[in-house]
TrEMBL record:
Leader peptide range in chain numbering: 1-26
Transmembrane intervals: none
PANTHER family documented for this protein: 2-SUCCINYL-6-HYDROXY-2,4-CYCLOHEXADIENE-1-CARBOXYLATE SYNTHASE (PTHR43248), TRIPEPTIDYL AMINOPEPTIDASE (PTHR43248:SF29)
Family under the similarity heading: Belongs to the peptidase S33 family.
Protein name (database record): Alpha/beta hydrolase
Organism this protein belongs to: Yinghuangia aomiensis
Peptidase S33 tripeptidyl aminopeptidase-like C-terminal domain segment(s): 408-510
Pfam family, one: Abhydrolase_4
Amino acid sequence: MVRVKRLRGIGAVLAGALLLAGCSDAGSAKGSKDAAGPSKSGSGPADLVPMPAAGSISWSRCDDSSFECGTLSVPIDYGSTSGPKIKIALIRQKATGPDRIGALVVNPGGPGGSGIDFARYAASAFPKSVLQRYDIVGFDPRGVGESAPVRCLTDSQMDTYTQLDPTPDDPAEEQALVTGFTDFGKGCEAMSSQLLGHVSTAEAARDMDQIRSALGEPKLNYVGASYGTFLGATYAELFPGKVGRFVLDGAVDPSQPAVTANRLQGGGFETALDAYVDDCVAGGSCFLGATRDEALTRIRTLLADLDAHPLPGDGKRSVNEAIATTGVLSPLYSRDQWPDLTVALKAAFRGDGLPLLELNDVYYERGSDGHYANLMYANAAVNCLDGPAAASSPDQVKTQVDEFQQTSPTFGRALAWAGLSCGEWPITPSGKPHEIHAPGAAPILVVGTTRDPATPYAWAQALAQQLDSGHLLTYDGDGHTAYLRGSACIDTAVDTYLLTGQTPPDGKTCN
Protein backbone atom coordinates (compact mmCIF):
# COMPACT_ATOMS: atom_id res chain seq x y z
CA MET A 1 0.00 0.00 0.00
CA VAL A 2 0.98 3.60 -0.23
CA ARG A 3 1.61 6.54 1.99
CA VAL A 4 2.72 10.17 1.91
CA LYS A 5 3.92 12.52 4.55
CA ARG A 6 1.26 15.02 5.45
CA LEU A 7 1.61 16.86 8.71
CA ARG A 8 -0.88 19.46 7.55
CA GLY A 9 -3.59 17.00 8.45
CA ILE A 10 -4.13 13.81 10.34
CA GLY A 11 -3.29 10.60 8.60
CA ALA A 12 0.11 9.93 7.19
CA VAL A 13 -0.84 6.63 5.71
CA LEU A 14 -0.67 3.01 5.49
CA ALA A 15 2.09 1.26 3.79
CA GLY A 16 5.00 1.39 1.44
CA ALA A 17 4.97 2.89 -2.00
CA LEU A 18 4.26 0.88 -5.11
CA LEU A 19 7.60 -0.83 -4.80
CA LEU A 20 7.36 -1.42 -1.09
CA ALA A 21 5.33 -3.59 1.21
CA GLY A 22 1.66 -4.25 0.72
CA CYS A 23 -0.99 -3.51 3.29
CA SER A 24 -0.34 -4.55 6.83
CA ASP A 25 -1.79 -7.98 7.44
CA ALA A 26 -3.10 -7.48 10.96
CA GLY A 27 -0.04 -8.83 12.68
CA SER A 28 -0.65 -10.83 15.78
CA ALA A 29 2.80 -11.45 17.15
CA LYS A 30 2.77 -13.92 19.99
CA GLY A 31 1.50 -12.15 23.02
CA SER A 32 2.54 -11.97 26.64
CA LYS A 33 0.57 -12.00 29.83
CA ASP A 34 0.46 -8.53 31.28
CA ALA A 35 -0.76 -6.88 34.42
CA ALA A 36 -3.06 -4.91 32.12
CA GLY A 37 -4.74 -8.16 31.16
CA PRO A 38 -4.26 -9.11 27.50
CA SER A 39 -7.28 -10.85 26.09
CA LYS A 40 -7.38 -14.64 25.84
CA SER A 41 -10.58 -14.72 23.84
CA GLY A 42 -11.31 -14.77 20.14
CA SER A 43 -8.31 -14.79 17.80
CA GLY A 44 -6.11 -12.65 19.99
CA PRO A 45 -2.44 -13.38 20.65
CA ALA A 46 -1.59 -16.16 23.07
CA ASP A 47 -0.24 -15.46 26.56
CA LEU A 48 3.35 -16.62 26.94
CA VAL A 49 5.43 -14.61 29.40
CA PRO A 50 4.74 -11.79 31.86
CA MET A 51 5.17 -8.23 30.71
CA PRO A 52 7.93 -6.39 32.56
CA ALA A 53 7.22 -3.51 34.89
CA ALA A 54 7.44 -0.27 32.95
CA GLY A 55 10.49 1.88 33.38
CA SER A 56 10.43 5.59 33.98
CA ILE A 57 10.53 8.47 31.54
CA SER A 58 12.97 11.24 32.34
CA TRP A 59 11.46 14.34 30.79
CA SER A 60 13.44 17.44 29.82
CA ARG A 61 12.60 20.51 27.81
CA CYS A 62 12.80 20.17 24.05
CA ASP A 63 14.01 23.05 21.90
CA ASP A 64 10.44 24.33 21.86
CA SER A 65 9.63 25.43 25.41
CA SER A 66 6.06 24.08 25.26
CA PHE A 67 7.25 20.49 24.78
CA GLU A 68 9.09 17.99 26.91
CA CYS A 69 11.15 15.19 25.38
CA GLY A 70 12.04 11.86 26.89
CA THR A 71 12.87 8.21 26.30
CA LEU A 72 11.57 4.94 27.70
CA SER A 73 13.55 1.69 27.64
CA VAL A 74 11.61 -1.36 26.46
CA PRO A 75 12.69 -4.93 25.65
CA ILE A 76 13.60 -5.65 22.07
CA ASP A 77 11.93 -9.05 22.53
CA TYR A 78 8.96 -9.32 24.87
CA GLY A 79 9.53 -13.08 24.89
CA SER A 80 12.87 -12.48 26.60
CA THR A 81 12.38 -9.42 28.74
CA SER A 82 15.79 -9.72 30.40
CA GLY A 83 17.50 -9.33 27.05
CA PRO A 84 18.64 -6.21 25.17
CA LYS A 85 16.54 -3.07 25.24
CA ILE A 86 15.88 -0.14 22.94
CA LYS A 87 14.84 3.38 23.76
CA ILE A 88 11.48 4.69 22.58
CA ALA A 89 11.57 8.43 21.93
CA LEU A 90 8.63 10.50 23.23
CA ILE A 91 7.39 14.05 23.29
CA ARG A 92 4.74 15.67 25.47
CA GLN A 93 2.88 18.93 25.78
CA LYS A 94 1.02 19.12 29.07
CA ALA A 95 -2.64 20.07 29.30
CA THR A 96 -2.97 23.82 29.20
CA GLY A 97 -5.98 24.20 31.49
CA PRO A 98 -7.59 22.85 34.64
CA ASP A 99 -9.69 19.70 34.97
CA ARG A 100 -7.15 17.49 33.17
CA ILE A 101 -8.57 14.22 31.79
CA GLY A 102 -5.21 12.52 31.18
CA ALA A 103 -2.69 11.82 28.46
CA LEU A 104 -3.77 11.50 24.82
CA VAL A 105 -1.34 9.39 22.81
CA VAL A 106 -1.35 10.06 19.06
CA ASN A 107 -0.07 8.15 16.04
CA PRO A 108 -0.15 9.36 12.39
CA GLY A 109 0.03 6.01 10.63
CA GLY A 110 2.54 4.67 8.16
CA PRO A 111 3.69 2.29 9.43
CA GLY A 112 6.75 4.46 9.79
CA GLY A 113 5.18 7.84 10.51
CA SER A 114 6.76 9.84 13.31
CA GLY A 115 4.50 10.23 16.32
CA ILE A 116 6.84 12.93 17.59
CA ASP A 117 6.27 15.03 14.48
CA PHE A 118 2.57 14.31 14.68
CA ALA A 119 2.32 15.38 18.31
CA ARG A 120 3.81 18.75 17.36
CA TYR A 121 1.18 19.05 14.64
CA ALA A 122 -1.59 17.96 17.02
CA ALA A 123 -0.57 20.56 19.58
CA SER A 124 -1.24 23.27 17.01
CA ALA A 125 -4.22 21.73 15.19
CA PHE A 126 -6.31 20.08 17.88
CA PRO A 127 -8.99 22.36 19.33
CA LYS A 128 -8.26 24.37 22.46
CA SER A 129 -10.90 22.43 24.38
CA VAL A 130 -8.95 19.18 23.86
CA LEU A 131 -5.53 20.73 24.49
CA GLN A 132 -6.74 22.23 27.75
CA ARG A 133 -7.72 18.85 29.17
CA TYR A 134 -5.21 16.41 27.69
CA ASP A 135 -1.47 16.06 27.71
CA ILE A 136 -0.59 15.44 24.05
CA VAL A 137 1.91 12.58 23.87
CA GLY A 138 3.61 11.32 20.74
CA PHE A 139 6.19 8.58 20.29
CA ASP A 140 8.18 7.16 17.43
CA PRO A 141 7.31 3.45 17.32
CA ARG A 142 10.16 0.96 17.46
CA GLY A 143 12.18 1.07 14.26
CA VAL A 144 10.89 4.54 13.37
CA GLY A 145 12.45 7.98 13.49
CA GLU A 146 14.30 8.45 16.78
CA SER A 147 13.43 5.00 18.19
CA ALA A 148 16.19 2.68 16.94
CA PRO A 149 15.41 3.43 13.29
CA VAL A 150 15.56 0.65 10.74
CA ARG A 151 17.86 1.33 7.78
CA CYS A 152 18.06 -0.67 4.57
CA LEU A 153 19.75 1.16 1.69
CA THR A 154 22.10 4.02 1.00
CA ASP A 155 20.47 7.14 -0.43
CA SER A 156 21.81 6.42 -3.92
CA GLN A 157 20.54 2.84 -3.70
CA MET A 158 17.13 4.15 -2.64
CA ASP A 159 17.08 6.48 -5.65
CA THR A 160 17.60 3.46 -7.88
CA TYR A 161 15.02 1.42 -6.00
CA THR A 162 12.28 4.02 -6.38
CA GLN A 163 12.79 3.97 -10.16
CA LEU A 164 12.32 0.22 -10.63
CA ASP A 165 9.72 -0.54 -13.29
CA PRO A 166 6.51 -1.32 -11.35
CA THR A 167 4.81 -2.95 -14.36
CA PRO A 168 7.37 -5.34 -15.92
CA ASP A 169 6.75 -6.31 -19.52
CA ASP A 170 9.20 -9.19 -20.01
CA PRO A 171 11.19 -11.74 -17.99
CA ALA A 172 14.20 -9.44 -17.69
CA GLU A 173 12.12 -6.64 -16.17
CA GLU A 174 10.38 -9.14 -13.89
CA GLN A 175 13.74 -10.37 -12.64
CA ALA A 176 14.97 -6.82 -12.10
CA LEU A 177 11.95 -6.13 -9.92
CA VAL A 178 12.38 -9.35 -7.92
CA THR A 179 16.08 -8.60 -7.47
CA GLY A 180 15.25 -5.10 -6.27
CA PHE A 181 12.85 -6.42 -3.67
CA THR A 182 15.30 -9.11 -2.55
CA ASP A 183 18.21 -6.69 -2.25
CA PHE A 184 16.03 -4.29 -0.26
CA GLY A 185 15.28 -6.99 2.31
CA LYS A 186 18.91 -8.09 2.45
CA GLY A 187 19.91 -4.49 3.05
CA CYS A 188 17.49 -4.24 5.97
CA GLU A 189 18.90 -7.45 7.42
CA ALA A 190 22.49 -6.26 7.05
CA MET A 191 21.91 -2.79 8.51
CA SER A 192 19.23 -3.55 11.16
CA SER A 193 19.63 -7.22 12.02
CA GLN A 194 19.06 -6.95 15.78
CA LEU A 195 15.68 -5.25 15.52
CA LEU A 196 14.33 -6.47 12.18
CA GLY A 197 12.46 -9.42 13.67
CA HIS A 198 10.92 -7.28 16.42
CA VAL A 199 9.11 -4.38 14.79
CA SER A 200 5.67 -5.96 14.56
CA THR A 201 2.53 -4.02 15.32
CA ALA A 202 1.82 -6.29 18.30
CA GLU A 203 5.20 -5.39 19.79
CA ALA A 204 4.58 -1.69 19.17
CA ALA A 205 1.22 -2.07 20.92
CA ARG A 206 2.99 -3.57 23.92
CA ASP A 207 5.35 -0.59 23.88
CA MET A 208 2.26 1.62 24.05
CA ASP A 209 1.16 -0.11 27.20
CA GLN A 210 4.61 0.41 28.69
CA ILE A 211 4.20 4.09 27.83
CA ARG A 212 0.75 4.17 29.43
CA SER A 213 2.11 2.65 32.61
CA ALA A 214 5.17 4.93 32.69
CA LEU A 215 2.88 7.94 32.31
CA GLY A 216 0.92 6.78 35.34
CA GLU A 217 -2.31 6.49 33.34
CA PRO A 218 -4.87 3.82 34.35
CA LYS A 219 -6.27 3.77 30.81
CA LEU A 220 -4.84 4.65 27.41
CA ASN A 221 -6.54 7.47 25.52
CA TYR A 222 -5.57 7.41 21.88
CA VAL A 223 -6.04 9.03 18.47
CA GLY A 224 -4.68 6.92 15.61
CA ALA A 225 -4.95 7.55 11.88
CA SER A 226 -4.71 5.08 9.00
CA TYR A 227 -2.23 2.35 10.02
CA GLY A 228 -2.51 3.93 13.47
CA THR A 229 -6.02 2.45 13.61
CA PHE A 230 -4.53 -1.03 13.26
CA LEU A 231 -2.02 -0.24 15.99
CA GLY A 232 -4.87 0.98 18.19
CA ALA A 233 -7.08 -2.01 17.43
CA THR A 234 -4.18 -4.34 18.19
CA TYR A 235 -3.71 -2.61 21.55
CA ALA A 236 -7.41 -3.04 22.28
CA GLU A 237 -7.14 -6.73 21.44
CA LEU A 238 -4.17 -7.19 23.78
CA PHE A 239 -5.31 -4.91 26.58
CA PRO A 240 -9.09 -4.42 26.35
CA GLY A 241 -9.34 -3.49 30.00
CA LYS A 242 -6.93 -0.60 29.51
CA VAL A 243 -8.78 1.05 26.62
CA GLY A 244 -9.88 4.58 27.43
CA ARG A 245 -11.17 6.88 24.71
CA PHE A 246 -10.02 5.59 21.33
CA VAL A 247 -10.47 7.40 17.99
CA LEU A 248 -9.52 5.25 14.98
CA ASP A 249 -9.69 7.48 11.89
CA GLY A 250 -9.23 6.12 8.35
CA ALA A 251 -9.56 2.57 9.56
CA VAL A 252 -7.78 -0.58 8.42
CA ASP A 253 -9.65 -3.90 8.25
CA PRO A 254 -7.33 -6.32 10.09
CA SER A 255 -9.07 -9.37 8.64
CA GLN A 256 -8.01 -8.73 5.04
CA PRO A 257 -5.09 -10.70 3.59
CA ALA A 258 -2.49 -8.57 1.85
CA VAL A 259 -3.55 -9.47 -1.68
CA THR A 260 -7.14 -8.43 -1.01
CA ALA A 261 -6.16 -5.29 0.86
CA ASN A 262 -3.79 -4.18 -1.89
CA ARG A 263 -6.45 -4.72 -4.56
CA LEU A 264 -9.09 -2.84 -2.58
CA GLN A 265 -6.72 0.01 -1.89
CA GLY A 266 -6.14 0.23 -5.62
CA GLY A 267 -9.88 0.69 -5.94
CA GLY A 268 -9.73 3.43 -3.31
CA PHE A 269 -7.15 5.36 -5.30
CA GLU A 270 -9.13 4.82 -8.48
CA THR A 271 -12.17 6.34 -6.75
CA ALA A 272 -10.07 9.30 -5.61
CA LEU A 273 -8.69 9.80 -9.13
CA ASP A 274 -12.24 9.68 -10.51
CA ALA A 275 -13.25 12.38 -8.02
CA TYR A 276 -10.28 14.53 -9.05
CA VAL A 277 -11.02 14.33 -12.77
CA ASP A 278 -14.76 14.80 -12.19
CA ASP A 279 -13.96 18.02 -10.35
CA CYS A 280 -11.77 19.15 -13.23
CA VAL A 281 -14.41 18.33 -15.85
CA ALA A 282 -17.18 19.99 -13.85
CA GLY A 283 -15.22 23.22 -13.77
CA GLY A 284 -15.27 23.48 -17.56
CA SER A 285 -12.33 23.64 -19.98
CA CYS A 286 -10.58 20.80 -18.15
CA PHE A 287 -7.03 20.38 -19.47
CA LEU A 288 -7.48 16.60 -19.32
CA GLY A 289 -10.56 16.37 -21.50
CA ALA A 290 -14.28 17.04 -21.65
CA THR A 291 -15.36 13.79 -19.94
CA ARG A 292 -14.17 11.50 -17.18
CA ASP A 293 -13.19 8.82 -19.70
CA GLU A 294 -11.16 11.28 -21.77
CA ALA A 295 -9.39 12.59 -18.68
CA LEU A 296 -8.54 9.17 -17.30
CA THR A 297 -7.34 7.97 -20.68
CA ARG A 298 -4.96 10.92 -20.94
CA ILE A 299 -3.46 10.22 -17.49
CA ARG A 300 -3.11 6.49 -18.17
CA THR A 301 -1.52 7.18 -21.54
CA LEU A 302 1.00 9.51 -19.89
CA LEU A 303 2.03 6.84 -17.39
CA ALA A 304 2.32 4.19 -20.11
CA ASP A 305 4.39 6.47 -22.35
CA LEU A 306 6.80 7.21 -19.52
CA ASP A 307 7.60 3.51 -19.27
CA ALA A 308 9.51 3.78 -22.54
CA HIS A 309 10.22 7.51 -22.74
CA PRO A 310 10.98 9.16 -19.35
CA LEU A 311 10.83 12.91 -18.92
CA PRO A 312 13.64 15.14 -17.65
CA GLY A 313 13.59 15.56 -13.89
CA ASP A 314 16.14 17.26 -11.66
CA GLY A 315 19.17 16.74 -13.85
CA LYS A 316 20.18 13.57 -12.04
CA ARG A 317 16.98 11.55 -12.10
CA SER A 318 14.55 11.19 -14.95
CA VAL A 319 10.82 10.74 -14.46
CA ASN A 320 9.76 7.29 -15.57
CA GLU A 321 6.52 5.39 -14.98
CA ALA A 322 7.47 4.52 -11.39
CA ILE A 323 8.23 8.10 -10.36
CA ALA A 324 5.20 9.50 -12.18
CA THR A 325 2.81 6.94 -10.69
CA THR A 326 3.95 7.84 -7.19
CA GLY A 327 3.70 11.51 -8.10
CA VAL A 328 0.08 11.05 -9.18
CA LEU A 329 -0.87 9.00 -6.13
CA SER A 330 0.70 11.34 -3.61
CA PRO A 331 -1.67 14.33 -3.91
CA LEU A 332 -4.76 12.11 -4.02
CA TYR A 333 -4.58 11.81 -0.24
CA SER A 334 -6.09 15.24 0.25
CA ARG A 335 -8.42 17.38 -1.79
CA ASP A 336 -6.25 20.32 -0.75
CA GLN A 337 -3.45 18.85 -2.84
CA TRP A 338 -5.43 18.41 -6.02
CA PRO A 339 -4.07 21.72 -7.37
CA ASP A 340 -0.54 20.31 -6.93
CA LEU A 341 -1.51 17.37 -9.12
CA THR A 342 -2.91 19.71 -11.75
CA VAL A 343 0.34 21.68 -11.83
CA ALA A 344 2.40 18.51 -12.11
CA LEU A 345 0.29 16.95 -14.88
CA LYS A 346 0.24 20.14 -16.92
CA ALA A 347 4.03 20.34 -16.64
CA ALA A 348 4.40 16.70 -17.66
CA PHE A 349 2.29 17.25 -20.76
CA ARG A 350 4.70 20.09 -21.61
CA GLY A 351 7.65 17.72 -21.24
CA ASP A 352 8.72 18.79 -17.74
CA GLY A 353 8.75 16.00 -15.17
CA LEU A 354 10.15 17.97 -12.24
CA PRO A 355 6.85 18.69 -10.43
CA LEU A 356 5.93 14.98 -10.53
CA LEU A 357 9.40 14.17 -9.20
CA GLU A 358 8.92 16.63 -6.35
CA LEU A 359 5.62 14.98 -5.40
CA ASN A 360 7.40 11.61 -5.49
CA ASP A 361 10.07 12.96 -3.14
CA VAL A 362 7.51 14.24 -0.66
CA TYR A 363 5.94 10.81 -0.65
CA TYR A 364 9.22 9.05 0.02
CA GLU A 365 10.44 11.69 2.49
CA ARG A 366 13.49 12.44 0.37
CA GLY A 367 15.08 15.73 1.35
CA SER A 368 16.49 18.33 -1.00
CA ASP A 369 19.94 17.03 -0.08
CA GLY A 370 19.04 13.59 -1.43
CA HIS A 371 18.77 11.98 2.01
CA TYR A 372 15.84 9.69 2.75
CA ALA A 373 14.19 9.55 6.14
CA ASN A 374 13.74 6.01 7.43
CA LEU A 375 9.97 5.97 6.89
CA MET A 376 9.95 3.59 3.95
CA TYR A 377 12.45 1.23 5.57
CA ALA A 378 10.35 0.99 8.71
CA ASN A 379 7.27 0.68 6.56
CA ALA A 380 8.53 -2.41 4.76
CA ALA A 381 9.96 -3.95 7.92
CA VAL A 382 6.67 -3.69 9.81
CA ASN A 383 4.44 -4.78 6.95
CA CYS A 384 6.58 -7.77 6.01
CA LEU A 385 6.68 -8.93 9.63
CA ASP A 386 2.98 -8.39 10.29
CA GLY A 387 1.74 -10.96 7.79
CA PRO A 388 2.35 -13.15 4.74
CA ALA A 389 3.24 -11.55 1.44
CA ALA A 390 0.56 -10.94 -1.16
CA ALA A 391 2.57 -12.94 -3.68
CA SER A 392 5.68 -15.10 -3.65
CA SER A 393 6.52 -15.34 -7.36
CA PRO A 394 5.97 -13.54 -10.66
CA ASP A 395 3.76 -16.40 -11.80
CA GLN A 396 1.49 -15.87 -8.80
CA VAL A 397 1.27 -12.14 -9.54
CA LYS A 398 0.22 -12.90 -13.10
CA THR A 399 -2.79 -14.80 -11.79
CA GLN A 400 -3.82 -11.71 -9.80
CA VAL A 401 -3.26 -8.91 -12.33
CA ASP A 402 -6.60 -9.11 -14.15
CA GLU A 403 -8.63 -8.76 -10.96
CA PHE A 404 -6.43 -5.88 -9.79
CA GLN A 405 -6.90 -4.09 -13.10
CA GLN A 406 -10.65 -4.57 -12.98
CA THR A 407 -10.68 -2.90 -9.57
CA SER A 408 -8.21 -0.18 -10.55
CA PRO A 409 -7.52 0.29 -14.27
CA THR A 410 -4.97 3.03 -13.55
CA PHE A 411 -2.99 1.61 -10.63
CA GLY A 412 -4.00 -2.04 -10.42
CA ARG A 413 -1.19 -3.63 -12.38
CA ALA A 414 1.50 -1.83 -10.40
CA LEU A 415 -0.15 -2.68 -7.09
CA ALA A 416 -0.38 -6.35 -8.08
CA TRP A 417 3.35 -6.49 -8.74
CA ALA A 418 4.02 -4.61 -5.49
CA GLY A 419 2.66 -7.67 -3.73
CA LEU A 420 6.03 -9.32 -4.36
CA SER A 421 7.82 -6.85 -2.10
CA CYS A 422 7.63 -9.13 0.96
CA GLY A 423 7.98 -12.34 -1.04
CA GLU A 424 11.71 -12.71 -0.36
CA TRP A 425 11.78 -11.00 3.03
CA PRO A 426 14.55 -12.39 5.25
CA ILE A 427 12.36 -12.62 8.38
CA THR A 428 9.41 -15.01 8.70
CA PRO A 429 6.13 -13.15 9.39
CA SER A 430 4.88 -13.33 12.97
CA GLY A 431 1.26 -12.39 12.31
CA LYS A 432 -1.69 -13.23 10.11
CA PRO A 433 -4.99 -11.60 9.14
CA HIS A 434 -7.79 -11.98 11.64
CA GLU A 435 -10.78 -10.12 12.98
CA ILE A 436 -10.27 -8.04 16.11
CA HIS A 437 -13.11 -8.03 18.61
CA ALA A 438 -11.51 -6.72 21.84
CA PRO A 439 -14.29 -7.91 24.17
CA GLY A 440 -14.55 -5.81 27.30
CA ALA A 441 -13.06 -2.67 25.80
CA ALA A 442 -14.72 0.71 26.39
CA PRO A 443 -16.57 2.29 23.43
CA ILE A 444 -14.23 2.85 20.48
CA LEU A 445 -14.98 5.48 17.83
CA VAL A 446 -14.16 4.36 14.27
CA VAL A 447 -14.20 7.09 11.61
CA GLY A 448 -14.48 6.36 7.88
CA THR A 449 -14.46 8.58 4.78
CA THR A 450 -16.60 7.48 1.84
CA ARG A 451 -14.00 8.35 -0.83
CA ASP A 452 -10.86 7.69 1.16
CA PRO A 453 -8.13 6.65 -1.30
CA ALA A 454 -5.81 4.79 1.08
CA THR A 455 -8.21 3.10 3.51
CA PRO A 456 -11.46 2.40 1.67
CA TYR A 457 -14.65 3.18 3.57
CA ALA A 458 -15.61 -0.50 3.66
CA TRP A 459 -12.63 -1.07 5.97
CA ALA A 460 -14.00 1.35 8.55
CA GLN A 461 -17.36 -0.36 8.33
CA ALA A 462 -15.69 -3.73 8.83
CA LEU A 463 -13.58 -2.68 11.81
CA ALA A 464 -16.49 -0.98 13.55
CA GLN A 465 -18.52 -4.15 13.10
CA GLN A 466 -15.75 -6.44 14.30
CA LEU A 467 -14.99 -4.52 17.49
CA ASP A 468 -17.43 -5.50 20.21
CA SER A 469 -17.57 -1.87 21.32
CA GLY A 470 -17.06 -0.22 17.91
CA HIS A 471 -19.11 2.81 16.84
CA LEU A 472 -18.91 4.06 13.24
CA LEU A 473 -18.87 7.75 12.34
CA THR A 474 -19.03 8.47 8.58
CA TYR A 475 -17.66 11.40 6.60
CA ASP A 476 -19.21 11.66 3.15
CA GLY A 477 -16.26 13.30 1.45
CA ASP A 478 -12.86 13.08 -0.23
CA GLY A 479 -9.39 12.48 1.11
CA HIS A 480 -7.67 10.25 3.61
CA THR A 481 -9.10 10.41 7.14
CA ALA A 482 -11.74 12.86 8.36
CA TYR A 483 -10.86 14.49 11.68
CA LEU A 484 -9.53 18.04 11.30
CA ARG A 485 -10.17 17.96 7.54
CA GLY A 486 -12.68 20.79 7.50
CA SER A 487 -15.92 19.10 8.54
CA ALA A 488 -17.29 20.84 11.61
CA CYS A 489 -19.72 17.95 12.04
CA ILE A 490 -16.92 15.36 12.25
CA ASP A 491 -14.74 17.53 14.46
CA THR A 492 -17.57 18.23 16.89
CA ALA A 493 -18.44 14.54 17.17
CA VAL A 494 -14.83 13.50 17.78
CA ASP A 495 -14.17 16.33 20.25
CA THR A 496 -17.33 15.51 22.19
CA TYR A 497 -16.27 11.89 22.45
CA LEU A 498 -12.76 12.82 23.62
CA LEU A 499 -14.07 15.24 26.21
CA THR A 500 -17.09 13.32 27.51
CA GLY A 501 -16.79 9.73 26.28
CA GLN A 502 -20.14 10.06 24.49
CA THR A 503 -20.17 8.40 21.07
CA PRO A 504 -22.23 9.85 18.20
CA PRO A 505 -25.58 8.24 17.38
CA ASP A 506 -25.30 5.00 15.43
CA GLY A 507 -25.28 5.62 11.70
CA LYS A 508 -24.29 9.29 11.99
CA THR A 509 -23.01 10.70 8.68
CA CYS A 510 -21.36 14.10 8.20
CA ASN A 511 -20.61 16.14 5.10
